[in-house]
Design goal:
Layout (H helix, E strand, L loop, with lengths): L3 E5 L4 H12 L3 E6 L5 H4 L4 E4 L6 H9 L3 E4 L6 H6 L1 H21 L4 E7 L22 H16 L6 E7 L1 E3 L17 H9 L6 E4 L11 E2 L1 E3 H16 L5 E5 L5 E2 H12 L5 E4 L8 E2 L4 H7 L8 H15 L1
Parallel strand pairs: 1-2, 1-4, 2-3, 4-5, 5-6, 6-11, 7-10, 8-13, 9-14
Antiparallel strand pairs: 9-12
Helix pairs in contact: 1-8, 5-6, 7-9, 7-11, 9-11
Bound molecules: nicotinamide-adenine-dinucleotide (NAD).
Length: 324
């Protein structure tokens, strides 16, 4: 049998694109998500298990198919919700992930890549942010992801279990073939929300925070295309096989765009003026999160092809137009 991997969160945004990417690269891909996969994701899956990541059925699922590796994307990942419900985030992102870790180790998994986040850094004291930057999260989402990073690093032994941690900045864009895209429920992510407003599916776009110390007062972010993220996972998965050390990489475009600049680009591409409503800052949002991702570029040979803002917006826009 060829190479087999398990992707958790396979019905979600990053997970579904990762599934497609690995499937196209010749892997057998097993899905795992508490939400059933949509048809357009299902077709890239060799098998799929609809359950919680902490479920014991994961052991037999992985053993039966002889999977060698895991990409762990499943998580609760809304900053605002995490501030309101920290216990829920502790439960999903730490307790259940620990159960999952122990189950996949029992099943003999040798390599694991964990979707972590720039939110583990907190308010940056250095920009762009290198992997060695102090990790001091300012919201429970970032804190729970950091806790699980530490669990994984303790589990890494360089022989029977090898760990890769990838800290995404703002994952965005959509499958260049327009099959997959970004949907969250509720949708709190900037680009889909702004596109929905631009296409008349939302009354207005809520702009949280206009008094940050940035060039136009809105938050500054680093947007990385989801297809480029998938490419980095594939490169890391290969390299982990021969690696004694745990690997940690920032995945970002290294370009800084403010929220207002993103809205302007959407206006430019849709030839509309989307309605913006200024709101107070959202608790837990740092002013600026920009990656230094030179390590991934150098060590993995990662070459993002889709992460310039106009391409991110145009792929996301095409997908939204296709499904709306
Ligand atoms: N989207 C981003 O900008 C971004 C940035 C940094 C890091 N990340 C990380 O990337 C990963 C994927 O993010 P996303 O945007 O694709 O999120 P998403 O919400 O689209 O997908 C997450 C998926 O995980 C599933 N899931 C959650 N908890 C589960 C559980 N206990 N058992 C089974 N399934 C479960 C959900 O049903 C969902 O399909 C997350 O770990 C997130 O922390 C995302």
């Amino acid at each position: 049998m060829g190479k087999t991997i398990l992707v958790t969160g396979s019905s979600g945004f990053v997970g579904s694109h990762t599934v497609k990417y690995f499937s196209k690269a010749g892997f057998q891909v097993l899905g795992l998500d508490e939400a059933a996969p949509a048809e357009h994701i299902q077709k890239y899956l060799t098998d799929s298990l609809v359950c919680d990541i902490g479920d014991e059925r994961v052991v037999s699922y992985v053993k039966r198919r002889d999977a060698q590796g895991v990409i762990h994307c499943a998580a609760k990942c809304l900053v605002g919700e995490s501030v309101e419900k920290p216990d829920l985030y502790q439960d999903y992102n730490v307790t259940r992930s620990r159960r999952f870790l122990s189950n996949i180790r029992a099943a003999g998994i040798e390599r694991m890549i964990f979707s972590s986040t720039a939110a583990t850094y907190g308010e940056p004291i250095q920009t762009p942010i290198p992997e060695s930057h102090l990790q001091k999260p300012i919201n429970p989402y970032g804190a729970t992801k950091l806790q699980f990073e530490k669990d994984l690093l303790s589990a890494h032994d360089g022989k029977s279990f090898k760990v890769g941690i990838v800290r995404y900045f703002n994952a965005a864009g959509a499958d260049p073939e327009t099959e997959l895209g970004e949907v969250h429920d509720p949708e709190t992510h900037l680009i889909p929300n702004a596109i929905l407003a631009a296409l008349g599916k939302k009354k207005e776009f809520l702009l949280f925070g206009t008094d940050y110390e940035t060039r136009d007062g809105s938050c500054e972010r680093d947007f990385v295309h989801v297809w480029d993220l998938a490419q980095a996972h594939a490169q890391l998965f290969d390299q982990l096989a021969g690696s004694k050390d745990a690997r940690i990489y920032n995945l970002g475009s290294q370009a800084a765009y403010t929220v207002i600049e993103v809205l302007d680009e959407i206006d430019r591409q849709t030839k509309t003026k989307l309605k913006r409503k200024n709101m107070p800052r959202r608790p837990g949002d740092p002013s600026r999160l920009i990656a230094d991702s030179s390590k991934a570029r150098m060590e993995l040979g990662w070459k993002p092809e889709w992460s310039e803002l106009p391409k991110i917006i145009s792929t996301a826009l095409s997908w939204h137009r296709h499904v709306l």
